[in-house]
Amino acid sequence: MILVHLAEGFEEVEALTVVDILRRVDLPVYSVSVTGKKMVKGAHGIKIEADYLFEEIDYDKCDMIVLPGGLPGATNLRDHKGLCNKISAFAEEGKGLAAICAAPLVFGSLGILAGRKATIYPGMEDELNGAEPIPFPVVRDMNIITSQGPGTAMKFAIALVSYFKGKEIGEELASDLLMI
User: Fold this and answer.
1) For helices 12-24 and 153-165, what crossing angle results, to 10°?
2) What digits encode the pLDDT tens for the residues 14-68?
3) Topology, domain 2-172
């Protein structure tokens, strides 16, 4: 199970692209609100009804935590102690973690990027705290995938497909979507 976490002010393109692309290849992906309400308002005023509330999730059944960016969405995710505890546990266990745009700052604030390669929205590299900033659209360092922003959302989602289904399936889907 892959969980895309939504906080008030999330970047709509990043969240919805991931859910859409992963569902195209039958990966079990769900949106999770960390606000205490299922209806969550994005950075551009688009309201999305999450599949679940944070409190309803059994994280033992989760394979990857995904964080869309946007501001204040990313900082709201960073300020959610329960989510940060889950992210730290996933990092310790080597389970999948992915963040795009400003959201890698959550991983940086938890110290889980130290000694790793990562990317973030350009100009925010200081938020990576100990990571080697790589100016690529998508960077994968073992179990952690990061990406730069709304314009890289499709590449980010394809990287998640490749993580779970293999590079060949990811490339085939990218071709079907006219990305390559």
Assistant:
1) 30
2) 999 999 999 999 999 999 999 999 999 999 999 999 999 999 999 999 999 999 9
3) Rossmann fold (3.40.50)
Residues designated as active site: 101
Q: Answer whether 93's CB lies under 8 Å from 65's CB.
A: no
In angstroms, the CA 57 to CA 147 distance is: 25
Q: HSE (CB half, 13 Å, CA atoms) of 126?
A: 1
Is-above-0.90 flag for pTM?
yes
- pLDDT one-digit tens code per residue, 136-172: 999 999 999 999 999 999 999 999 999 999 999 999 9
The residues, any chain, with a CB within 8 Å of residue 45's CB and separated by 6 or more, are: none
